[in-house]
Structure formats: structure tokens, C-alpha cells
Amino acid sequence: MRKTQRLTLMALLVAQGLVLHIFERMLPVPFITPGAKLGLTNIITLIALYMFDFNEVFFIIVLRIILATLIGGSLSNFLYSMAGGILSFLAMYTLKKVGKDNVSIIGISMVGAVFHNIGQIIVAGLVIENAMIVTYLPVLVIAAVGTGFFIGLTAKYLLPFLKKITL
Question: Which chain regions cross the lipid bilayer (predicted)?
Fold first, then answer.
């Protein structure tokens, strides 16, 4: 893929991530756990993870989070999203490299969802200055495994199509 094509695809992924972020904010939260979301923007992160290198994926994630915050977020949203997004990406990237042929995109998605929650719990603990927030993590992990499965499944079927049209 030429440099211009790569940059254009990266911009499209950032834009799609923003659309998914806005769409997800409009959905009523179907979970028992307050603050839990579907993680639709993780579809974009997974696609990027399989199409671009480390720096490009990192750039896509950070730019999407900054733009989403500017569109309708707050400082706390920015902190939670950045911590969750970066920790999630690092976990998924590491697992993809280490697991290579042994871990599917669905497994990587589920790990990413769990680590996103871990990043957010760490920030929440620092913000509210109470480590007891960690007791909320098991509930979030259960939700993350479920949503991570479906996000990974979506990315699994979307990725071959995107790779085919970008070659």
C-alpha cells in the first residue's frame, strides 16, 4: 500500500471510530454495570492492529480519543479513554506478537476489553483516591469478555474484506 493510501485509510479509520463513538453514546446502556459500554470503537483498533504498524495504530487511537473528547467529552472522559485505550492497545499488540498463530482476533479483542477496564479502574482509583474501586473490576471483566467476544467476531469478518479492497 502506498503512503497516501495508508494515510487515507488511517484517516478513514479515525473517522469511523468517531462515528462509532458517537453512535455508542446514543445507545441506552443495556448492562447492569454502570459505565460499561459495548466498546464499538475497539472494532477500529482491531482492524488497525492487523493492518498497520505499532506507531500508526497508536496514532489512530490517540487521535480518535482526542477528537472524541473535543466533540463532546470532558477531561475525565479523556483520562479514562486514554488510559483504557492505550493499556488495551499495548495488551493486544503484545498478545498478537507473542501469541501469533495461537490466539485469534477474538481472543485478542477479549483481552483488549479486559485491559481497557483495568486502565479505567486504575484512573478511577487515582481520581477518587480510593483503591476499593478495584472491587468493581470482576463485574467489568465479565462484561468485557462478552462484549470483547462480539467485537472480535465483527472484526474477524470485516478484516478480510477491508484487506481485499485496500490491496
Answer: 7-23, 78-95, 107-128, 134-159
Domains in the chain: boundaries: 3-166
The answer to whether 152 and 46 are in contact (CB under 8 A) is: yes
pLDDT digits 0-9 by tens, 64-107: 999 999 998 788 889 999 999 999 999 999 999 998 888 999 99
Helix, strand and coil in the chain, % to nearest 5: 85, 0, 15
Cα 103 to Cα 5, 16, 115: the distances in Å are 29, 26, 16
Helix or strand or coil: residue 37?
A: coil
Which CATH code is given to the segment(s) 3-166? 1.10.1760.20
Give the separation between CA 166 and CA 26, rounded to whole angstroms: 31
- The H helix count followed by the E strand count for the chain is 6, 0
